[in-house]
Amino acid sequence: MDVRELERLIRGEVFTDRETLEQVRTDFGRILEGAPSVIVVPADERDVQTAVRFAFDHEWPLSVRGASHTQGGQSLNRGGILLDTSSLNHIGAVEKDRVWVQAGALWSDVVRHTLPEGLLPPVLVSHLEVTVGGTLSTGGYGASSHRFGAQVDHVLELEVVTGEGHRVRCSETENAELFRCVRAGLGQFGVITGAGLRLRKALPRVRTHYLLYDDLKVLMSDLQRWMQSRRVDYIECGCSPCGQGLRKVGDAALPFAEWFYPVQVGFEFRGSRDCAALPEGARPYRVLGHDDYSIEEFVRRFEPQLDLWRRAGSWRLAHPWLEVFLPWNKGAAFVLGVLRSFPCNLLDGGQVLLRPLSGRGATVPLLRLPAEERVLGFALQPCVPQQSLPMVLPMIAKAAELSAQVGGKRYLTGWLDFDHDGWKSHFGEFWPAFLEWKRFYDPKNLLNPGLIDVPEVEAG
Fold this sequence. Notes:
Layout: H1 3-9, E1 13-15, H2 18-22, E2 38-41, H3 45-58, E3 62-65, E4 81-84, E5 98-102, H4 107-114, E6 119-120, H5 132-136, H6 145-148, E7 155-162, E8 167-170, H7 176-182, E9 190-198, E10 200-201, E11 205-213, H8 216-229, E12 234-238, E13 240-249, E14 252-269, E15 286-294, H9 295-299, H10 303-312, E16 322-327, H11 328-341, E17 351-358, E18 374-381, H12 389-405, E19 409-410, H13 420-427, H14 431-441, H15 455-459
């Protein structure tokens, strides 16, 4: 590849020096590595189109990187072109219930832009320092997903550069097939350069109640009732170990714990705080009080915790995260089984999360969910030293295998261990459509390669 030719074509920046290339050798997961030959930082959407066309003409692999918060190498490139879209961060004017943003904009900036108008995206991820294009390529879930589903459910329109370098607008009514496959499509069919996002009215205050459960089945019963009532605006749940010392397992003594389930239940309100009262019938082990936030404080509530993790060094460790969606009626048994078998000491600096979800996967075909009205999200998020990966990854792989056996589906931002049959099983009835979309929109199989094994595309 003649990099000098690419440099002449790109109006933004092009990097080939070793020091800069080494900075993108890994992602947040710090499990896999791979350095590109060149990094392109586009000045605008035309630069994206130019870079993709160049990759297509010269048959060089091209990958997209935003905030690179993936844990399984999804935003890495080995020996080709890495397109850093963080430079595409413009946010347009708010128009009634929508806003147009470039794909490299951070969700934190989107919130700063829309909140003065009293508006928010229906779903916000917990960590707002990630890009719009990144979460729309995977799904995007948050504390309001029990009501509103995923972020990709609220995209009105996209601008995409396909694998052949065509710059296309798509929506439910225009280029609908491209719209269907690009959302939660892991960058396999095109590079998202911009998105029209739906917004909702947000009340100015949020009351958060802190509850603690000691019985997961009781918690899930309460969650189901809250989801049915549609009164609760935000639900966040975790699994917290209370260490009990060592227990003999075979010839070894391993740490074990009793598990508790902290829950935060949030209600937006304006003037009367009565509407923010905890619903009657909740059955927690303990009620731990509540806090009132402004809506601005609430959407940024995780910033202090994330800052603490960075300063404590957790951010620099490996993150072999497993995130799965489980059938609701099998969720409790699966979670309890994993928690019993996973050494609690490996979660120092990490966390285990539960998330009740509205099952809306049918609106976005490649966002795979169990085909149920309610789904339980489960995230096992350890932070471990590199030398612990040979011990931890088999545990994560075993939990992933068990999740598939109970009808679960993986959330594709985490660590992935799929082979060809695994990807085929994951996409299920949409696998033939996936291959057809891949052949049509990325006929040379150059976009974000090395992640999904699609030999049929290469052969076709």
